[in-house]
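For reproducibility, we list the full input for the pyridoxal-5'-phosphate complex.
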Amino acid sequence: MPDTAVASLNQLYTEKFPSSAKLFERGRKIFPNGVTHDGRYLTPFPIYIDRALGSKKYDRDGHEIIDYWMGHGSLLLGHSHPAVVEAVQRQAALATHPGACHEQEIDWAEWVQRLIRSAEKVRFVNSGTEATLMALRVSRIVSGKRKVLKFEGHFHGWHDLLIPAADPPYGTGEYGMPGITGNVLDDLVVVPPNALAAVERAIDEHDPACVILEATGGHWALVPMRGEFLRGLRELTARKGVILIFDEVITGFRVHPGGSQGHYEITPDLTTMAKILAGGLPGGALAGRADLMSALEFENRWGKKMKHPGTYNGNPLSAVAGVAALSEVAKGQLCQQANEMGLRLRTGLNELFARLDVNWIAFGEFSGVTIVPEYDGPRPTNDEFIPFGNSVAKLDRKIDTRLSHAFRCALLLNGVDFFGWRAMLSGVHSADDIDRTIDGMESVVHLLRQERLIP
Ligand SMILES: Cc1ncc(COP(=O)(O)O)c(C=O)c1O
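The corresponding predicted structure, in tokenized form, follows.
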């Protein structure tokens, strides 16, 4: 890839977003890499957002950008939904932290219970990372076992036991991560996704406390896991007496008001949630079987209590935002619109890529869209299509970083923000947003070709 091409793209980008360039000069002096989340890093610099509404966000220079990050997947209702804004403003004036029980936390948990079939009991935490951490600890207490089984490429937050094997390379047995010690890794069993026989062998060999998975597949379904496998896993874990944890931090309230478990009609033992759960504010939850969740009770049948403090657990601002969001989600139209617009975007992009004869395709399911660049297989003929025969090695491969940054910058130049090569839709993305996005993508392909960044 010629350096001059990236330089000329960067120049266009710097001319379009001068205020963001200036802010990044300040940010890079104080934050490692200039950012507060690895995923927000972008060269030559990220854009800085002043405000957002519905499916759009607006940068410091006033450009309107169609947003496909949607609060890292937490904004199914769109940015600044009036019901969420009103609820948070009212609650902020009443109490932001009473340091006490309050009705809003009960309302919030009752909505979770109404929507999520496995939620006999609920405990709030502050993030998805905390929810999966709690799920493992509860599983270990009640089972009296140590090990945890997870799948290659499945992301469950950044705590010690589950961040290993979240990224390639897989299959080496070496899942070390800087800063994580060997003792922790001894308790982790990693198996390839979608291979039930491998799960059964690993259960027989390692006798784990639990199996945890992203409930539609690793990395937000970059490597999909669909109903047949999920049903097989439910049957297998029940037969072997292993606790099954659906991590629904992304899928919860998104693929269906009842999450992946509602869509596929499968009841896991424990469920982790965050993101849409708290309407775009910080928040998370563990929910599940009452007997398992009793590990959090002072007196319980297990004879051991899981200690669970946490200053912001059940925070009332997150609670009222969550109630506002979940009561909208319950009506069903938001999930339906997000899923329909996801399909429209995948289909439109595939038509575009075929017409332009570029070696890219789009695939995905529900409200997620992934573009696969540098693709040499057959083009999708229907929306069930999964590239590379669902091979984790090929789907989860490393894409050239310079191409990835150039792609995002070119998209931003055309008024669209993707999460890398991926898009997460909301229930307020319209057909017009999708059509404008496809037009923008056409300009991106032309620009990258003109700069000789793609064939
Ligand atoms: C499936 C899944 N689990 C857990 C997490 C961690 O959630 P949080 O970022 O709230 O800690 C994420 C975050 O994207 C996720 O996608």
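The chain has 17 helices and 15 strands. Residues 211 and 244 are 5 Å apart (CA to CA). Both points were considered when choosing residues for closer inspection.
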